[in-house]
Amino acid sequence: MKDIQVYVKVERYIKEWLEYHLGNPVRFPERSYENELLHAHLSKRPGDLPPNKPEGCFVSVVITDSLHRKPEYYNYLGSRGQRAVASAIDALFRLDMWSGCAPLLHSSKEINKGIDEWCAGNGISLDAREAVRQKFYRIRKAYMEKGIILGKFYRKKTTIIASKNEHEK
Known about the structure:
single chain; 169 residues; mainly alpha; two-stranded antiparallel ribbon
């Protein structure tokens, strides 16, 4: 009995990105953090609880073979496990998005067009691109609030500081 699946609730754009890169159903690489986390949270299905496909934006994840937890027996992912795996997927998405879009901060290219191109190249639909753009700008703003200024804001700030120093001399 192979390709037993569990379902994890994620945002629509993350579902599209994940399925674009890892297939539908999603199959994490064998030694990846996400796969290890999935196996750590799997347990035996409680009682007579049947497997079900939930409604909403869920991504189906294949439980890969494991010597210690055979998918035939360990195929239940509780709510705590679902949250942990969803959080790991979100972190992976953020890393990929940031590494793909951060160079746009220092380029002469318009950031919004660059984010649209990154989304198109990563299987994210036109309807979901605004959510990705907002996520990118929220991350950038969170860093800025902590004093870590990225991109064009950095160039403006150093120019202002340099001009202040010249006036003081």
